[in-house]
């Protein structure tokens, strides 16, 4: 919920407060059920897969909203798909007026990143990782009372992987490890394939997750138009009762209820099909090294080179995957405990990295700017800040993963640790690429474990 002050108290919005305009507010697009987007105005280039065949979109359901946008399920109309024919469904992510300006006029590369990713030329079209990315199908501009909104069209998804994990944990409270090792490998392999494609398109994702959660990776169930038709009949879309807030606006406050799509099938936890999405913070690889730290990367996922304000590139995505790999095993436990005495959070972060992975190589000191180098490193290249007795010790990687040996074989755990250490290589110059990790024998070997295979 969102709150806003009014003359006689506080008015509580049920969802995105779409009555307010910038500056001072995001300016969410005020969309209604049944609203039709016609005469679509687009930015060219890029051209997307559905751009030349789509006549209009009709909103049929609200799927959700977040800080940057609200998301809607819509029916797509083409010249060959009149109103009385079988519906074709898409998801439309409509950016707020503020975020739209950031993309269209400002430093965000989202529009062009999505264009590069859906390129239909070789070698992009035949890359094995392409099918593991959620590609934009279309885009258009929409004008509201708040200004101009940029809208992206995607195939509809139900749950992201984080929501799926939470659902499965709730339904299986006694299960120690949610995924088998082969199930974990399946998730890591698909994410690496997606990153391989993103990096091949000269992009860096930089935002695989939010606070180490798998929220930007979605479960893929293929075309679900038939299931959506049936579901909408049985579960009609809803809006909240119309309200009035005279101290805030002269217009009636009309809010549509978020109703995400469910999983129409119940896939095995250990054979999920996934897609990497949300490229709002993607950066061109050729420009990344000049840009310094990337503020959109969640703190827990920041690689050493980001913490040290050094040059950075595609290896930051591999480090982030290594952190998420750790969290995937323990379900909601990041690899670095950043709690500590008041002071420099970056110093604590670096010390926790050293505690988990061992001493920083001397090469890291030379990568830093002079002010950062003198702040965090001694002349011999060792870190100045150490984990104090007053801070709870977490232990190194082998110690933290030792409980796995009660469920999985020693060989499997040793190989898992070896692979995770490769992802969490401190020096980015030595950190393997997505393609190199995909060749690691650990990903293709069958594991011997006693975890659930459901």
Give a written overview of the molecule.
The chain has 15 helices and 12 strands. It has 454 residues and is of the alpha+beta class. The protein has 2 domains: 178 residues, 2-Layer Sandwich (Phosphorylase Kinase, domain 1), CATH 3.30.200.20; 247 residues, Orthogonal Bundle (Transferase(Phosphotransferase), domain 1), CATH 1.10.510. A 6-stranded antiparallel sheet has the order 3-4-5-6-8-7, covered by helices on one side. The protein has a two-stranded antiparallel sheet with strand order 1-2. Helix 4 packs antiparallel against helix 8.
| Main sheet: strands, sense, barrel | 6 strands, antiparallel
* String of helices and strands: EEEEEEHHEEHHEEHEEHHHHHHHHHH
Helical content stands at 25-40%
SS strand fraction: 5-15%
Low-pLDDT regions: none
* CATH H-tier superfamily of the largest domain: Transferase(Phosphotransferase) domain 1
Overall SS class: alpha+beta
Question: What is the name of the CATH architecture of the largest domain?
Answer: Orthogonal Bundle
Overall pLDDT confidence: 87
| CATH topological fold name of the largest domain | Transferase(Phosphotransferase), domain 1
Shape: globular
Global Rg? 24 Å
* Total domain modules: 2
Keywords: ATP-binding, Kinase, Nucleotide-binding, Serine/threonine-protein kinase, Transferase
Organism: Coprinopsis cinerea (strain Okayama-7 / 130 / ATCC MYA-4618 / FGSC 9003)
Pfam families: Pkinase (PF00069)
Protein name: CMGC/SRPK protein kinase
């Amino acid at each position: 919920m969102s709150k806003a002050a009014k003359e006689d108290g506080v008015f509580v919005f049920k969802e995105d407060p779409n009555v307010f305009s910038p500056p001072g507010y995001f300016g969410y697009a005020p969309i209604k059920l049944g609203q039709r987007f016609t005469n679509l105005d687009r930015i060219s280039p890029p051209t997307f897969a559905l751009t030349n065949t789509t006549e209009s979109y009709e909103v049929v359901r609200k799927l959700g909203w977040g800080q940057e946008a609200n998301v809607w399920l819509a029916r797509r109309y083409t010249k060959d798909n009149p109103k009385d024919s079988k519906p074709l469904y898409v998801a439309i992510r409509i950016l707020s007026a503020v975020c739209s300006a950031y993309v269209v006029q400002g430093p965000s590369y989202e529009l062009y990143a999505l264009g590069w990713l859906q390129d239909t030329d070789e070698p992009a079209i035949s890359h094995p990782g392409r099918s593991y990315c959620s590609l934009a199908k279309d885009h258009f501009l929409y004008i509201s009372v708040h200004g101009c909104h940029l809208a992206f069209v995607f195939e509809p998804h139900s749950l992201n992987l984080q929501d799926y994990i939470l659902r499965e944990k709730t339904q299986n409270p006694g299960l120690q490890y949610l995924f088998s090792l082969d199930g974990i490998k399946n998730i890591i392999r698909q994410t690496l394939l997606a990153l391989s494609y993103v990096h091949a398109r000269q992009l860096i994702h930089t935002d695989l997750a939010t606070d180490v959660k798998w929220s930007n990776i979605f479960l893929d169930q293929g075309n679900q138009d038939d299931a959506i038709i049936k579901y909408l009949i049985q579960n009609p879309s809803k809006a909240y009762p119309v309200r009035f807030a005279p101290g805030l606006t002269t217009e009636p406050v009309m809010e549509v209820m978020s109703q995400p799509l469910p999983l129409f099938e119940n896939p095995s936890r250990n054979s999920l099909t996934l897609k990497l999405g949300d490229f709002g913070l993607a950066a061109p690889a050729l420009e990344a090294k000049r840009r310094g730290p990337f503020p959109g990367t969640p703190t827990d996922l920041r690689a050493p080179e980001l913490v040290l304000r050094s040059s950075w590139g595609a290896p930051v995505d591999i480090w982030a995957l290594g952190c998420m790999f750790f969290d995937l095993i323990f379900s909601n436990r990041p690899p670095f405990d950043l709690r500590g005495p008041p002071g420099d959070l970056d110093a604590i972060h670096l010390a926790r990295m050293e505690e988990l992975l061992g001493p920083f190589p001397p090469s890291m000191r030379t990568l830093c700017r002079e002010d950062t180098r003198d702040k965090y490193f001694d002349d011999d290249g060792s870190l100045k800040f150490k984990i104090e007795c007053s801070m709870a010790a977490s232990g190194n990687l082998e110690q933290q993963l030792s409980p796995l040996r009660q469920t999985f074989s020693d060989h499997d755990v040793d190989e898992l640790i070896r692979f995770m250490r490769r992802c969490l290589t401190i020096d980015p110059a030595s950190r393997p690429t997505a393609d190199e990790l995909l060749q690691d024998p650990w990903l293709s070997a069958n594991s011997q474990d006693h975890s659930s295979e459901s």
